[in-house]
Amino acid sequence: MSELAKGVFFTGKHSVVLHEFPLEAKPGELKVRSLMSAISHGTEMLAYDGRLPDTSEGETLTALKGDYSYPLLYGYMNAGLLEDGSKVFAFRPHQDAFYALPDDLIYIPEHIELEDAVLIPSLETALSITHDTALRFREHAAVVGLGVIGLLAAELLLRAGAASVLAVDCLAERRELAQNLGCTVCAPGPEFSELVSDTTHGRGVDHAIHTSASPEGLQSCIDICAHEGQVVEASWYGRDEIPVRLGEVFHRKRIRITSSQVSHIRAELSSRWDKTRRMGALMELLPQVCPSKYISHRFPLTEAAQAFECIATNRKALQIVLTNKE
Prior knowledge:
The protein has 326 residues and is of the alpha/beta class. The chain folds into two domains: 3-119 and 295-323, Medium-chain alcohol dehydrogenases, catalytic domain (Quinone Oxidoreductase, Chain A, domain 1), CATH 3.90.180.10; 125-268, 3-Layer(aba) Sandwich (Rossmann fold), CATH 3.40.50.720. It has ten helices and 16 strands. Strands 3, 5, 6, 7, 8, 15 and 16 form a seven-stranded mixed sheet that branches. A six-stranded parallel sheet has the order 11-10-9-12-13-14, with helices on both faces. Strands 2-1-4 form a three-stranded antiparallel sheet, with helices on one face. It starts with a strand and ends with a strand.
């Protein structure tokens, strides 16, 4: 009789179901008993809303490669225990058990909490954004969109020596979180442009990081940049088409738009930074940054459908984690 695991499947638009499926071990693989998995409020909501592209062309994570048609077992933030009690993280979907090769596991030191470790991809994305920004000491940055990725990126930019990080979101609760980090915060609108002008003496920001996955947010980033400034676009839009105005300040100010994607390391850094060095940096950052501070809701794996509905309907849901009983 084959071993069974329970996993969260996207079965259609706004439809999530917990299914049992056969679990098979390949030679050399170790069994992991999942204790928790984190939902990506950006990428996975594209799957929930039916807005993923048809295929995963260019994807580097084995767990996410393949056809994006329903039913789809999808996700990439899973943490648990090996049979010897070791804490591990893996880029695996929401399921209560899985097998993986040792090289596909990230071993978590004892002093790091599992709730921080399960958010390794979010912190890695923020670090990748910071590297792609290439911020110089005392330059000004703005972060538009204060989900978990935006908040973590803002914190790392401050640590990297930004003169100021101007943080923008429509939700007051998220602006307060950014303010607690040391950011200057503002709601979207004309006041934001005034804040940028006042802070930068009329120049505009050197770097604008966009994480809101909205055309308005991207346009705002373009509009507030200094001459030859840079927009770092960290949102993934799936199959959506995003209109922006490129005939105004974008053209005159020679603004650059850089795509930031965590699967690859910036070419200028590749001779010094590889995935091993970046993971080492993350292990140092995890207990300092404590990304688990942004977990707003916890649901048992059996209530995954309610968890996704919560993200879709509750704007105060900042980071949801699915838990499995030991």
